[in-house]
């Protein structure tokens, strides 16, 4: 019998699918709703045929070796998979899978939540109201920046970047983007976006939103130099991975007024937040909620379960990340 180790309780529909396909006994769920610690992860992985980790769980060679030769598949409960050492998995002929597609629209919605909240200082103003400090309407209270008619810059024009760009049409925005794999002309036209170099993206964006995967090229890419090259009225938005940003440099840029505001859903050292960033009233900070809707998390559970079931039944997982590197 197979054993699947799930590192944190996920929506029941995914667990039910695993139990239906592999037997109730096969599914071993870490019982606590908190991030699993290293020792618990190593212990849970031992002898597993499949792992279903969260993006908060570093799955490296040691975890894989603890599981041993029985381990066939690691199905991350996320679209991002920078928490998994994919090269180590490939060397051990372990399939790595993720949950793309189903969280695109929810993440794009959350990106716009941050854009609007940062532009109009919603977090700061709500804190003020709740603190009982509001003494009535004021002609110069909490003045923000416009969104309508501005230029949206998208860094990383994949599925999520495109979904964010599509929403900009309703705000009559010019959309520029920088990306690794350029869009074909037809998609570019349909989205109404214009490819530009990184310098232009920094210089011309009123709102710069980051949607790249975390790689050696994107780690720390948004640092002091980048923020100094942006408009003082600009907003910096990140719903991808915190390590693309030098958080200390971003906090300094906000404090100095090098940019107007920021909206962040992801952080360099989650769940720790840089203390200087916490002191920035113009930073809207959310606890990694990009895909956090009931419907989306249920779909992610189903996809992750499906990836595991396929791999353990000798079929190809639908979202197989290291497929291209697979030894022949
Ligand atoms: C969320 O950050 C994800 O990668 O799914
Ligand atoms: C920093 O001081 C900010 O205004 O966000």
Descriptive notes:
With 328 residues, this protein is of the alpha/beta class. It folds into 2 domains: 4-102 and 293-325, 3-Layer(aba) Sandwich (Rossmann fold), CATH 3.40.50.720; 104-285, Rossmann fold. The chain is built from 13 helices and 12 strands. It has helices at 12-22, 38-45, 61-67, 86-91, 104-119, 122-130, 159-167, 185-191, 198-204, 224-228, 247-256, 275-278, 294-312, and strands spanning 4-6, 27-29, 50-52, 73-75, 95-97, 151-155, 174-178, 193-195, 207-210, 235-238, 261-264, 283-285. It has a 7-stranded parallel β-sheet with strand order 8-7-6-9-10-11-12, sandwiched between helices. α7 (159-167) links the parallel β6 and β7 (174-178). α2 packs parallel to α3. The mean pLDDT is 97. One glyoxylic acid binds next to loops. One glyoxylic acid (GLV) binds next to loops.
Listing every helix as H and every strand as E from the N terminus to the C terminus, the arrangement reads: EHEHEHEHEHHEHEHEHEHEHEHEH
Which architecture name of the largest domain does CATH use?
3-Layer(aba) Sandwich
CATH superfamily of the largest domain: NAD(P)-binding Rossmann-like Domain
Number of separate domains = 2
What does the radius of gyration come to?
A: 21 Å
Fraction of residues in helix: 25-40%
Cofactors and ligands present?
glyoxylic acid
């Amino acid at each position: 019998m197979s054993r699947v180790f799930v590192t944190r309780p996920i929506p029941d529909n995914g667990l039910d699918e695993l139990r239906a396909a592999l037997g109730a006994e096969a599914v071993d769920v870490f019982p606590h709703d908190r991030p699993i610690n290293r020792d618990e992860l190593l212990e849970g992985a031992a002898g597993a045929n499949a792992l279903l980790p969260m993006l908060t769980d570093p799955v490296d060679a040691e975890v894989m070796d603890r599981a041993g030769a029985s381990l066939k598949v690691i199905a991350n409960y996320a679209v991002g998979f920078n928490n998994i050492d994919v090269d180590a998995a490939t060397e051990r002929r372990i399939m790595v899978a993720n949950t793309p597609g189903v969280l695109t629209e929810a993440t794009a919605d959350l990106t716009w939540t941050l854009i609007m909240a940062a532009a109009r200082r919603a977090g700061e103003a709500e804190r003020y109201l709740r603190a009982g400090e509001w003494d009535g309407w004021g002609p110069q209270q909490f003045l923000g920046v416009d969104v309508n008619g501005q230029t949206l810059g998208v860094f990383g024009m994949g599925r999520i970047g495109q979904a964010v760009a599509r929403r900009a049409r309703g705000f009559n925005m010019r959309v520029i983007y920088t990306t690794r794999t350029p869009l074909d002309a037809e998609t570019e036209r349909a989205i109404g976006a214009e490819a530009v170099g990184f310098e232009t993206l920094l210089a011309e964006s009123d709102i710069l939103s980051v949607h790249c995967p975390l790689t050696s090229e994107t780690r720390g890419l948004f640092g002091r130099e980048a923020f100094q090259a942006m408009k003082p009225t600009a907003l910096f938005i990140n719903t991808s991975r915190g390590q693309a940003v030098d958080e200390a440099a971003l906090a300094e840029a906000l404090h100095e007024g090098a940019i107007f505001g920021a909206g962040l859903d992801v952080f360099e050292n989650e769940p720790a937040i840089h203390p200087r960033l916490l002191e920035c009233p113009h930073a809207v900070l959310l606890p990694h909620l990009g895909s956090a809707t009931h419907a989306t998390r249920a779909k992610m559970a189903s996809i992750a379960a499906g990836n595991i079931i396929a791999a353990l039944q000798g079929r190809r997982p639908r979202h197989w990340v290291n497929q291209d590197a697979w030894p022949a």
